[in-house]
Write a structure and sequence with these properties.
Number of strands: 0
Number of helices: 3
Strand content: under 5%
Oligomer: single chain
Largest sheet: none
Helix content: 55-70%
Distance between the termini: 19 Å
Length: 58
């Protein structure tokens, strides 16, 4: 019997990747910085749930 899959997945269209590649390195780094900063403001429980998804535990 196949093991039940856990976690999550998402799809990125080729057009989205092409657009991202047009961004300057500075813009890409700023985007990552802001995303990380936003995540740090999340409640601890939310971050724990996200980490469990990433590890495939739920």
């Amino acid at each position: 019997m196949e093991e039940e899959k856990k976690g999550f997945s998402y799809t990125v269209r080729r057009e989205q990747i092409a657009e991202y590649r047009k961004w300057s390195i500075e813009r890409r780094l700023q985007w990552l910085f802001l995303a990380n900063k936003m995540r740090k403001s999340f409640p601890k429980r939310t971050i724990e749930i996200q980490e469990a998804f990433r590890k495939g535990e739920i």
